[in-house]
Amino acid sequence: MDFVSIRIITDDVARLVGFYERATGVSADWSTEDFAELRTAGATLAIASTRTVALFAPGSARPADNNTVIIEFLVDDVDGIHRNLAGFVDDFVNEPTTMPWGNRALLFRDPDGNLVNFFTPVTAAAVERLAR
User: Mean pLDDT across the chain, nearest whole number?
Assistant: First the structure.
């Protein structure tokens, strides 16, 4: 089994896709006005309209209601990205911080309130753990 994507349900696909394109530098591939994907080497971030929920199971997902998942991206330079996102991101949860497990992390919220973590391994143990 391979983990390939996470999907965010939103009331405003264009707004959220635009946010992630700007934040990550990855261009989205649009399938319909209700569905787009940002593909990276490791996984895909899918963004879908609330209209798509009924195709799976009506009422099974609600937009802007996530309080448990953090969407994480491995980046080369957390501090540089923080400088680039200043003035664009409205809600930084923390400034770049080196975590006890060896990653330098930047936590912020997307326009729907989902937590996003950009991180860079900065200790030898964190770099080794990522290489596995």
Answer: 96
> How does pLDDT run across 28-39, given as a tens digit for each residue?
999 999 999 999
Give the residue among 53, 115, 114 at the shortest CA–CA distance from 106.
115
DSSP bridge partners of 107: 117
Query: Exposure string (b/e) for 13-23, b if CB count within 10 Å is 16 or more?
Result: beebbebbeeb
**Domain of residue 86, residue span:** 66-132
pLDDT of residue 131: 87
Supply the CATH number for residue 78's domain: 3.10.180.10
Closest CA to 102 of 120, 80, 79: 120
Q: What SS3 class is residue 49?
A: strand
The CB density around residue 28, as the number of other CB atoms within 10 Å, is 21
103-109 and 97-98 beta bridge pairing: antiparallel
pTM above 0.85, yes or no: yes
**In the structure encoding, which two tokens stand for residue 111, read together?**
């326009």
Token pair, residue 98, equals 């080196």
Give the tokens for residue 8.
Answer: 């965010």
Estimate to the nearest angstrom the gap between the alpha carbon of 42 and the chain centroid. 13
